[in-house]
Fold:
Amino acid sequence: MRLYDIIEKKRDGFELSDEEIKFFIGGYVDGTVPEYQISALLMAIFFRGMNDREITTLTHTMMHSGDIVDLSEFGSVTVDKHSTGGVGDKTSLIVAPIVASLGGIMAKMSGRGLGHTGGTVDKLESIPGFDTGISSEAFLEQVRKVGVAVIGSTKNLAPADKKLYALRDVTATVNSIPLIASSIMSKKLAAGAHNIVLDVKIGSGAFLKDEEEGRLLAEKMVNIGKNSGRNIAAVITDMDRPLGFAVGNSVEVLEAVSVLKCEKIDDLYTVCKALASNLLSLCHGWSIEESEAKVDEVIKNGTALETFKNWISAQGGDISFVDEPSVLGKTDFEIEITAQQDGYISGMDAAMIGKTASVLGAGRETLDDVIDHTAGIILKKKTGDAVKKGEVIAVFLTSKEDKIETAKNMFASAVEFSTEKPKDKPLIYGIVK
Ligand code: URA
Structure:
């Protein structure tokens, strides 16, 4: 078999056989096929696409390139969630304890933030003492005791995807539905949970900008999950503005706690409730209405907050921040950003707001950058809100004085004003099962 022939076949729009897909992934991982040929093949896939069989084979080949987590001792109630990435997305911090409070077993691997999007691992590491690198034995032991544990993805989880993703990143081939679907699902399947809910985000802060693309990606991933014997659903949610009001790391943890304390019932809770109730419905066979009622109950009666505290302290975290936020530390500067005119906020470029938070210290451009867990942005107003000239619309938290002007300009370019109230957009576009 020659890679040249495989590239030519895909370039001309033909489907690849299972053997050809295994040959190219195997050759790339073991270094017998040069990167320039894989790049050419990725570009051919980008333009020609893949059918469901090709996508499933690609997913399974990448999934089996490394370790497969064995959660079989927990039976059929293991759960996992995945977000395609957004700004202000702290849903895992809320969904995990809710679902664990209701009998789901959340043994989860998460990633770090990169570019404009945040990562659950960074958020958790803003809690003093929290260890995202515990051994697999300690991870499973904690799951047995508390029902929830979250660690950073291990190096050997779908290593073929890690290599391929890095190449896609520099060859302008990230935004391809078959490549995104197989990349995400190879990791989710290898992570071992039986019930999976995907949060497919669409809008200015997401990979995919429109609903049609989001629905197609959701359908492809749900198909792969079902073909692999998993219970799976995808919730298509809005990322045309940050989710919630906090963007950063410790600020997002605090916002998550305020939801768990039942202090805030807003867009963030609505998305968490949809994700959690779909997981519970898959996991226990409950109806969505029944699941939603139970989610409300564990938020209102404090059970989810208790589970959160148990989880955080089991993983070494100091939970005193739940009652005393200053434990998480503070930046040197708090800069108020005000509206330049009367009217309404008519749009927010969520990706640009994520990049602004990153410049303030909350994110990284390359995986080696060191982040400031206390930096970020607290939004005071969001799309659709009325504002008066001079009113505070956001607060920057940073210790990088030299970046404040740049951040102000970036933020100004991200927020649009109008004299008329913009039309409300849905927060949840639909659910694919
Ligand atoms: N997230 C992934 O893990 N892979 C992609 O291809 C896109 C987003």
Observations:
- The pocket of uracil is lined by residues 84-85, 165, 174, 179-180, 183-184, 207 (CB under 6 Å).
- The chain has three domains: 3-49, 72-322, 330-418.
